[in-house]
Amino acid sequence: MMLPIMPWCRIDREYQVGDVMITPYRGQIDGVDDDVQRHLARVLGTYRNIEGRPVDRAAVVRYADRPFGSDLAPEEIECAYEWVQLACFAGLAGREFFTPEAPCNSNVFLLYMQRLKDADFVTIRTRRREGNTWSAWPLDSVVMSVPTHISPVRLVSLDRRLLDALVALARRGGPEWGRWQHALSCFNQGNTDSDAFRYQVEWGLLCSAFERLLDAESHYDDVARRFAEATVPSRPLLARDARRRIDPWKDPDAPVRLEWLREFYRVRGDFSHGRLATRQPMAWKPIEHLTLAAIAFPLLVRCLLRRAGTYELTPGDLAMVAVFEPFADQADSLTLPPDSRGSMDTWWTRMLGRALAGAAQSG
Hints:
The protein contains 10 helices and 9 strands. By secondary structure, it is an alpha+beta fold. It has 2 domains: 144 residues, no CATH class; 202 residues, no CATH class. A hairpin with a 2-residue loop joins β2 and β3.
């Protein structure tokens, strides 16, 4: 009996993701026989929350039309991991930043493949450098605790429309989809929120995500130019009008979004060559850069999916495109405004709210 589970994923509803179904677990799963239910409950009992108690909510993964608990071939296991990566990106892309509620991170979507040899022993799949192995353990001796950076994530929701658009593109296959897979995987790996993952590594992964998705040359000018051409607001903010402008910005007519990604990608060179700090002049602090990348990349994905004909931009998408440059140009954008009326009243929510209100009035 094989049990593909995501014990840290408190998903809000059931989602079809290509060839797999991700189903919430809240003590039981509809349509699963009692014997499998009992074994699943015992296995999930080995996964503990931050207080040391068994998790009360999780997600399970069903493959194609196979009953949950069916054994899977190695290629089916790998396929399941790939579809879960799409679900992961759809979760990251739908995050709401700058709220008291912790947004999801990619480690929330950790997928564990486990087999029950009998009622008392479980075999757990783990990776090795040369492949993977299945190791057997007495079920009652196994305890796995939630990583601390995952624990605050109380609810996981996927952007359904975005997910369907990505699945449609994946079904087309071909070399283009291979490039998209690479880019989405790099973005996911750069958004773990784990303290064990240095931000310089995240930086490199996120730059790779932009480069691969845009099919750009490995040069900051080409990556930034393609990004600026793909994400065009109705009223661009030009460098000559920016408050963050610094000396390396040579073109006063360049949009701020181009200068941002040009700087982000240029600094990547220092980190990829083993430096933990850069001496290059920067208009943005490292944490600001990484936050902007977390916002910009899903916007870029949506814009390119629209070009591919599988997605239509929503008013919310258009509002985020419109405010990305003003937000990037705002001093101390990650802190609350001086006249903030509470934790929900941030620079981002203010700008986004104004853009949505303006669009509603003009529409």
